[in-house]
Amino acid sequence: MSAVADLRRTVAELHRELTRYELVIWTAGNVSARVPGQDLMVIKPSGVSYDELTPERMVVTDLHGNLVEGDYAPSSDTAAHAYVYRHMPEVGGVVHTHSPYATAWAARGEPIPCVLTMIADEFGGEIPVGPFALIGDDSIGRGIVETLSASRSKAVLMRNHGPFTVGKDARAAVKAAVMLEDVARTVHFAHQLGKPIPIEQHHVDSLYERYQNVYGQ
Amino acid sequence: MSAVADLRRTVAELHRELTRYELVIWTAGNVSARVPGQDLMVIKPSGVSYDELTPERMVVTDLHGNLVEGDYAPSSDTAAHAYVYRHMPEVGGVVHTHSPYATAWAARGEPIPCVLTMIADEFGGEIPVGPFALIGDDSIGRGIVETLSASRSKAVLMRNHGPFTVGKDARAAVKAAVMLEDVARTVHFAHQLGKPIPIEQHHVDSLYERYQNVYGQ
Amino acid sequence: MSAVADLRRTVAELHRELTRYELVIWTAGNVSARVPGQDLMVIKPSGVSYDELTPERMVVTDLHGNLVEGDYAPSSDTAAHAYVYRHMPEVGGVVHTHSPYATAWAARGEPIPCVLTMIADEFGGEIPVGPFALIGDDSIGRGIVETLSASRSKAVLMRNHGPFTVGKDARAAVKAAVMLEDVARTVHFAHQLGKPIPIEQHHVDSLYERYQNVYGQ
Amino acid sequence: MSAVADLRRTVAELHRELTRYELVIWTAGNVSARVPGQDLMVIKPSGVSYDELTPERMVVTDLHGNLVEGDYAPSSDTAAHAYVYRHMPEVGGVVHTHSPYATAWAARGEPIPCVLTMIADEFGGEIPVGPFALIGDDSIGRGIVETLSASRSKAVLMRNHGPFTVGKDARAAVKAAVMLEDVARTVHFAHQLGKPIPIEQHHVDSLYERYQNVYGQ
Lengths: 217, 217, 217, 217
Fold this sequence. Notes:
4 copies of one chain form a homotetramer. By secondary structure, chain A is α+β, with helices and mostly antiparallel strands. Chain A has a single domain (about 1-215), classed as L-fuculose-1-phosphate Aldolase (3-Layer(aba) Sandwich). The first copy, chain A, has 7 helices and 8 strands, in the order H-E-E-E-E-H-E-H-H-E-H-E-E-H-H. Chain A has helices spanning about 1-20, 80-85, 100-110, 115-125, 140-150, 170-190, 200-215; strands spanning about 30-35, 40-45, 60, 65-70, 95, 130, 155-160, 160-165. Chain A has an 8-stranded mixed sheet, sandwiched between helices. Chains in contact: A-B, A-D, B-C, C-D. The interface of A and B includes residues 28, 46 and 48 of A.
């Protein structure tokens, strides 16, 4: 069970990136990680504040959101995370926030256009909007999966709600959440005083290609 | 007198959430808590900076704002808090800030429309505007109580002044103040570049119902 | 010389409020204090970063800006501070920043209208704009003094430049600088989505009267 | 090799100014320094987060970006930094960020007009836009050098990408990056509610002249 212990620590620590970059307030955002090779995930407990998130307080559920291990109820967004893991086997981490600039695009139901090299690098094109969906069944999860499946983007703006991001692991999903809010904000600013200049599609493609394959160590 | 001692500590600590989320500057905001079962409240002293707020420096007054215990004069907003406790027996905590986005809506006298699931969850509909009222008598308290009584919202935007929030205890009122500024900001952003999409009333109702009854531990 | 030693410490510490509230970047802002009963002032050294401001590094000048005591050259804004002390005997502290929202109003040459109770409380009416003035002689100081003399405001927005605030001591001037940026921001937000509602002049007067005479300990 | 050891420490520490002033997120920005008298530069490693930047992890390359010393691959922006050092012998430091307000101007391809004394002081006029350029060859470096060569500005806004700044050393380039974002933001705010008042050219010239020659210790 040492993979789970490691992920409890990783997931607890990654929540600090959400507060550091001011993507969340109070308890309103969560990170999860798939347990590799098992039908399990590690996720934030519901309604527990970020200061009090320890590895021990993380919750382990199966991929239908049923509690497997932990002293707390899992995040109220667990069903959406679980749906993503069931339907996107390449995804190892999911993040949900209500980060303000991304959520403002989501409130208008407008995708974020690809007008920055950073968007091309990380998201490979515009960042799409998912449907309005109520919490309580698989509606949110299905909206995330259907929207992401039709895009290169690792981020989806769920309408009137907020963003979900995915990644090969929890750290990659958190990175996508951080970069999403950053570009949502910069493109917001750009639009406030006029129109950003589009980037030609072939440039978007070559930026995306390079960043996915060359960047980093 | 141990309930009072506990509340002195709680109220002192909760002020840190106001500075953490940048809802207040200098000394311009305050938290109070009703002492359960007694006609007393614990509130911030007037004009004391947040760094210097210790449990000992908190002030105890009766529910007409008269000093009962403490070395400092109570907050200049004490009369408003006291009025709320006298007229809303279900309220155990009151918070007042001048958080910038909420106050901008208040300056225009415009309610914040319910265009985010987070607003439906926490506030149950649009966040209403209260009347312009001068400090010095019961005008502010009466404006708060009359406005909140006509709404499911725990927050009211006092015109040209700033928000007041209430809760079953001081922590819940602080949570409402934090979430209010967050949604005031996101909806502000959404309006800057167009129009947010409304959420249908029956969805607002079901989100509010669920969040009030299911969320958290 | 113990009054000077005290003021060195006070002035060094007050600069931390400028960074805490993000009113300044790098070395671009300064606090000074008049030495009571002497024709001296204590001011920030020029081009020294806020992390390195110790009481020992503060500079003492006469009220024409000539170095009296200290190992560093005084702030490049010393002449403006000195002019204010020479011409406004009731002023004991002066603060200069380029805080972004206040400076944006200054860049347009527009006063901040009195549409918040906090503006009425602290500034007694609209916050006025001073003339464009070059550094190097008494132009800035004269612009500050002439503008403040025609107003109840403790803050002036120097055109295309940034704000100066004054107070009975350095702490009061810093408080005014903090509140100025807060209201400059909130009124900016209010204007972005429409028009704030004006506050009637007799209400402004009674708010100002009360705050100046009753608030605090 | 002690100059290199010093610069490793300096460059590592200067990255903290990028996070302090929120000019960068995750790993998306970098500082470099020329090694005086040698055809070498010290630069951030690629894809390493700011918390983990130690002097030892800095990378030394030649002025064509080839690794000379270090355990990590150099920043993916190394080619651009190296090009600047090869073609601008007076430059001792280069900084690249995607700071949000500056990048918003870059996304629209609009220079920042010189409407603040701080812009005249530090940049000597409007802050120019460089061409759209793909990463992978000398296009970015050439765009920076050509744009800066036609201006007094130490900052260039690379179109759809973000700013680069230069200075006589790494600290001066970081200072320019910090001031750039500050003025990009303030002028953004000023434009949101109207038009800033221009500063006459002869005033710009005299402000620039004075600041470059008189300011600081």
